[in-house]
Design brief:
The chain is an all-alpha fold and about 80 residues long. It has a single domain, classed as 434 Repressor (Amino-terminal Domain), CATH 1.10.260. The chain is about 60% helix and about 0% strand. It starts with a helix and ends in an 18-residue tail after the last helix.
Length: about 80
Amino acid sequence: MGKIDKHLGLRIAQAWSEAGISLEQAATALDLSTTDFAELEAGDERISAFRLARISVFFGRSIGWFYAGLPGQSAFDLKSKSSSI
């Protein structure tokens, strides 16, 4: 997998560690097998937007938090309210 997948995996692992719950608890709550959760955490499986959204809600993190630190991530931050979309 690519650099983004590895980065997201590290952030998932960090959120999980800080939550202080077991692998089984996290996987069950997210409707994943423990193997699937471990693969996401390792960055060995590409994560869908829907799955990342569920993970972000479960761990109480914004989607942006998972991407923070990636080169180019700031391009997605809103700079001002005067920008037209």
